[in-house]
Write a structure and sequence with these properties.
- This protein is of the alpha+beta class.
- The protein contains 19 helices and 23 strands.
- It comes from Leptospira langatensis.
- Keywords: ATP-binding, Biotin, Ligase, Nucleotide-binding.
- This is ATP-grasp domain-containing protein.
Length: about 500
């Protein structure tokens, strides 16, 4: 049994994992950098350990420092969260060698699925459909161009070690190919230290459908249904939901079965996600497998009723899937939609917005879940991903979930950094989203519009009133605000 869990991550995912651990009576250890020393996830943990400087390369990505934290605190297991070291083979190997339980798959699995070329070949061998393409050894531009012509334009150039859209280019003609290849290889080399790429046929108007899978140490694998993640910006997911709307039941069943087939073929252990691309003709293809908990796991938790972090812990302890299910068959009840609230400016090319959060107020509302890592007074820095929270609406129907989520966004107030809260609401209110007609080009095709509503207007009015009343007697806004900040007065 795991007694003390070290969470090798930060922010909302650290708090999310701590929540389950507290319910299960497991002690938690937070690790932190200079920039995070006063963060909620550090204060909320049972123990904390300082890693180093604010840059991830000096703290959250330094494996020896994480191992020092494990040794110093006596933690007997590590949860990697997502991002940082969660899909680094070296990290999984180091923990296994140190005889510390890693809440993830075996190192060889992390290694295989982290290599897009090898994983694609493994899936093809297992009979899993893959997009027609080229994953040969040669990286010569002339060879790759010839292969692109064989596949037929448009094609996708993808980084072998890639993820998150880095090193990925869509090419529509022979003339565009070589400049795009050079750009993709340079981007992949900078991001992953591996400039290798492979080619895939570009699927027109695709949907991104992924399946949550779990495997245990006895070789059993099951799925916990699908998630629709088609609404993306620059290959980054913005809206996720489960079940996928307007998905033919026969295709849904087949995708889930193939996901289990894919995971079983590599002896998968723990939580994983098999991602597919679904064409307009109903054919679907393996995209990649993420060997960790996904950012969007709450929508699966909402419709299945399972705590996926608890499942990760129980499987790491050697429990079987059968013991977790206790004779019950997994099912989907209701509908859940998640959006990612970012400190970014939709009216300024989505540039990250940094600074002190003068006010963070999230609604306490039925059928609404908020996973956040920030509070009033938190600092949003350039060191880390600017996601402030995940907000998840649930309902008996998709429409009910959508309305609950919109209401939640209307009562979400962040002052300080600019956020995408209104942009998210605009997506949820778009007629094509309402009808469930989405694909990965949704945000390219449709203009997203919004208006300021609800508590935001009210708070803005309070802000203006407060500033006017104080600045008439002061030489500047900041003199008027004083050392407690703006919201110390208003609240």
């Amino acid at each position: 049994m795991i007694q003390k869990l070290l969470i090798a991550n930060r922010g909302e995912i650290s708090l999310r994992i701590q929540k389950t651990c507290k319910r299960l009576g497991i002690k938690t250890v937070a690790v932190y950098s200079d920039a995070d020393k006063d963060s909620p996830f550090v204060k909320n943990a049972d123990e904390s350990f300082y890693l180093g400087g604010s840059e991830p390369s000096k703290s959250y990505l330094v494996i020896p420092n994480i191992l020092k934290a494990v040794q110093a605190t006596g933690a007997d297991a590590v949860h990697p969260g997502y991002g940082f070291l969660s899909e680094k083979t070296e990290f999984a190997k180091a923990l296994y060698q140190a005889k510390v339980s890693f809440l993830g798959p075996r190192p060889e699995t992390v290694d295989l699925m982290g290599d897009k070329i090898r994983s694609r070949a493994a899936m093809e061998k297992a009979g899993v459909p893959v997009v027609p393409g080229y994953e040969g050894d040669s990286q010569e531009p002339s060879v790759l161009l010839k292969e692109a012509e064989r596949i037929g334009f448009p094609v996708m150039i993808k980084a072998s070690a890639g993820g998150g859209g880095k090193g990925m280019k869509r090419v529509f003609s022979k003339e565009e190919f070589l400049p795009s290849l050079e750009s993709a290889q340079r981007e992949a080399g900078n991001a992953f230290g591996d400039a290798r790429v492979f080619l895939e046929k570009y699927i027109i108007n695709p949907r991104h459908i992924e399946v949550q899978v779990f495997g245990d140490s006895s070789g059993n694998v099951i799925h916990l249904f699908e998630r629709e993640c088609s609404i993306q910006r620059r290959h980054q997911k913005v809206v996720e939901e489960s079940p996928a709307p307007n998905l033919d039941p026969k295709i849904k069943q087949k995708i889930c079965e193939v996901a289990v087939q894919a995971a079983s073929s590599i002896g998968y252990l723990g939580a994983g996600t098999v991602e597919f691309i679904l064409g307009e003709d109903g054919n679907f293809y393996f995209l990649e497998m993420n060997t960790r908990l996904q950012v969007e796991h709450p929508v699966t938790e909402a419709v299945t009723g399972f705590d996926l972090v608890e499942w990760q812990i129980r499987i790491a302890e050697g429990n079987t899937l059968a013991s977790l299910l206790q004779g019950k068959e997994p099912g989907q009840t209701g509908h859940a939609i998640e959006v990612r609230l970012y400190a970014e400016d939709p009216e300024n090319e989505f540039l990250p917005s940094i600074g002190r959060i003068e006010l963070a107020k999230f609604p306490d509302q039925q059928n609404l879940r908020v996973d956040s890592g920030v509070v009033t007074g938190s600092e949003v820095s350039l060191y880390y991903d600017p996601m402030l929270a995940k907000i998840i609406g649930y309902g008996k129907t998709r429409e009910e979930a959508r309305k609950n989520l919109i209401a939640g966004l209307e009562h979400t107030v962040i002052f300080g950094p600019v956020t995408n809260v209104n942009y998210l609401r605009g997506i949820l209110e778009h007629s094509e989203f309402v009808s469930g007609h989405t694909n990965t080009h949704f945000l390219e095709k449709h203009k997203i519009e919004w208006e300021e509503v609800g508590e935001e207007k009210e708070a803005l009015a309070k802000t203006a009133s407060f500033l006017v009343s104080r600045t008439v007697q002061s030489s500047s806004v900041w003199e008027a605000v004083g050392p407690k900040g703006l919201w110390g007065e208003i609240l």
